[in-house]
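Following up on my earlier thread - several people asked me to post the actual chain instead of describing it. Fair enough. Here it is, all 333 residues.
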Amino acid sequence: MYNSIVKGIGHYVPEKIVTNDDLAKIMDTSDEWITERTGIKERRYFDPKKDTVQSMGAEASRIALDRAGLKPEDVDMIVFATLSPHYYFPGSGVLMQRELGIPAGVPSLDVRNACSGFMYSLSVADQFIKTGMYKTVLVVGSEIHSSGLDKTTRGRNVAVIFGDGAGAAVLQRSEEKGRGILSTHLHADGNFAEELCIKQPSSANEVWMNHDIVDHPDSRPYMNGNLVFKHAVVRFLEVIGEALKANQMTSEDINLLIPHQANLRISEFVRMKLKLAEGMVFNNIMKYGNTTAASIPIALSEAWEQGKIKEGDTICLAAFGSGFTWASALIKW
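Reply from S.P.:
Thanks for posting it. Predicted structure:
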């Protein structure tokens, strides 16, 4: 059995910074209101003239590949996580493949598991490597949310949370024991599917798309914030505990926890329950908001750049989101 090591990591965020005060100019909100409820101070919005989901993913991937000492032609497979694809079909992974110049014939798999998307993608890539099918897998999370948000007072509870960005990780086969991805853990509960979703457009309609559907509130994101919060804090702790138990570890063995950047209050609650020191949980939601599938790879990349991840460290990744879905991974760096 092979191991998967994180050979390189990278991220890209658009240049445009949108502060809470900027949002307060177009909807009934304030910096204090947003910060108190989410911890977010600003987020990035894409440039329609240059940024796409695949181009942002490609930028993050170039950095990750360069840090891994690899080239696009070294990639054996792409796993691309997004809930904001460039086209309804085909998936954005093949568009990024074309943009990076990854050779024809290399498989590309798109994953639509929202906030847990990168974790699901990481697990899929890990299994392909562990079975020996592929040597090098490029795992990407990339999102453009800003173009789909209801930026009015009606939509403020969701609109203030989300931002745009991309992150990428290069996984590579290794025979070194006790290093790399130690385990991954995936879960879902479809009973709560409508508590965090966009319902329209839908293939269940007699007509998939018309003006009435475009103008309907169901074509904008809906979130039952209180319910999501209550489930998130429980599932985060469960799935982190599951990863630790599977590897005969405790929270004291974690050098750094990188949670999905959903809400600073959730991260703080989890940190205190696990009795981790402040510096042992990495948060950047203050700068970027919630970038769903991109949030963990962006945070992982920033943590590595800041010297918070060193060789031999035990890194725990965990996510919770729409579906409901939740997941974790334990990595020996």
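The longest helix spans residues 225-246. That should answer part of your original question.
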